[in-house]
Amino acid sequence: MRHFDCEKPGSIGATIAAYIAHADTTLHDALQRLDQTGGGPLMVVDDTGRLVRMVTDGDIRRLLLDGRDQSAILDALPPIAPVTARMTTTLAELSAMFETAQVTAIPRLDDAGVPRLLERRDNAGAVLLSTPHLGGLERDFVQQAFDTNWIAPLGPQVEGFETELAQYSENGHVAALSSGTAALHLGLILLGVKDGDRVYCPSFTFAASANPIRYERAIPVFIDSEPQTWNMSPKALERALARDKACGALPAAIIIANLYGQSADMDALMALADAYGVPVLEDAAESLGATFKGRKSGSFGTLAAYSFNGNKIITTSGGGALCGDDGDMIERARFLATQAREAAAHYEHQTIGFNYRMSNVLAGIGRGQLKVLDDRVRRRRAIFEIYCEALNDIEGIDWMPEPNGYFSTRWLTAAVFNDACGLDRTRILNGLQSVGVEARPVWKPMHRQPVFEAYEFEPHDDGRIADQSVSDNLFNGGLCLPSGSNMDDATVYKVCEQIRYWAKG
Ligand SMILES: Cc1ncc(COP(=O)(O)O)c(C=O)c1O
């Protein structure tokens, strides 16, 4: 693993100091410094240590050719705002910045504006949260799409992908779509959700679970998590349903999300939904490959959505699918996803449609990925086991539980770092980031998101003070660790060493 900052095991602090030059440094001295740093750019700072600009040997050469003397100071250079990163910039965003700006180093500013230098070659060795992991066959399927000129949002690869995904996921029918969000949106429409309806949704999830509720101008009601699964709390759901039934305001649908590769308690949740006659839309974006009591996650609700975004357990680079047993509903989804074009030679429309279909090229990637899905599940579970075993002596790490009868894919290894045991989640997060390891806080609850905070929230424990809900507690200490199936054991152990170091406090 590469290190690209100081204050950590294997510190390169001395090298960092060599990159900083005060604005009154002479051109001669700056050239000498650049010689020592192997030509890497210097960070020019003012009296307060704030970054003014970057300077390369090319900048100095131009000044000298312009007739400046070597005794002139760096202040003579025109100020040019440098491309900078913040402490919150993710490693993936950094990679994109290096690519766009075509620079070899980017200063990262702390809250006081003091820079530290991140070099492109170091970022290249970063350990990312979850990256695509191709098998051997994706290219062949994509090649077929090229060979047959099916470069369209329909074609044999789309049909093949739908059939194979239906088989794998134990669903009668599948519509391949452009994203998991599109699948959730169409799912709500097909369940009849409309303007002003209430829709239950977990608070502890990604915003894409909740956003489609607002696309239809329906009203989200956020339901807390339970500690056993981190997913929707049956206790909170039951309370909300009973209360809403009493005032004639039952929801039009319930979205149940299955986070980090693990199903929610579908026995309890489905029994409640059935008892109150409310249809369920499963958000299985993160749980393809997981099972609950032997049955595939994403086969319980009336409809379910999967995501094939680049960070998911398998990917089509971007894509999703809507699944279910009702063939008419899935056929309607395909219709709505292709601009609701009626069967007429001319373009006839009676309904508002969407451009949500998956392309035939991307479906080819998906077919190849499906072939290796079970291998990817095995590897992610093995990575989780390494984290648990290597860190089991650190008191206060509560791994996401996997109750009896559940089979999680461990899409992301997630744990709560307990501050009562002296573990500081933010310190660990920032520490990992500073040595090129991408971790992320678990999802910030929707009822805490500025865009959703005005909506109702039903906590797991009635009468709990509002900021101590289960989802709040998960968020306060929760972290997702690098979990990509293409990580080797040695890398996972190195991440563990770093966690151990930053956990020490
Ligand atoms: C829980 C959850 N729901 C929905 C989505 C949306 O999927 P997509 O990114 O394919 O639109 C994602 C992933 O991004 C997710 O993690």
| Mean pLDDT figure | 91
Question: What is the CATH homologous superfamily assignment of the largest domain?
Answer: Type I PLP-dependent aspartate aminotransferase-like (Major domain)
Give me the count of strands. 21
Residue share in β-strands: 15-25%
Low-confidence parts lasting 5 or more residues at pLDDT below 50?
A: 1-15
The span between the termini is: 22 Å
Fill in the CATH topology of the largest domain.
Aspartate Aminotransferase, domain 2
Helix/strand-derived category reads: alpha/beta
The CATH architecture designation of the largest domain is: 3-Layer(aba) Sandwich
Our Rg estimate from Cα atoms comes to: 26 Å
From the spread of the alpha carbons, the general shape counts as globular
Query: For the largest beta sheet, what order do the strands appear in spatially?
Result: 7-15-14-11-10-8-9-20
Q: What small molecules does the structure contain?
A: pyridoxal-5'-phosphate
User: Which range best describes the helical content: under 10%, 10-25%, 25-40%, 40-55%, 55-70% or over 70%?
Assistant: 25-40%
Helices, by number, come to 17
Main β-sheet: number of strands, strand sense, barrel status?
8 strands, mixed
**Tally of discrete structural domains:** 3
* CATH class (first level) name of the largest domain: Alpha Beta
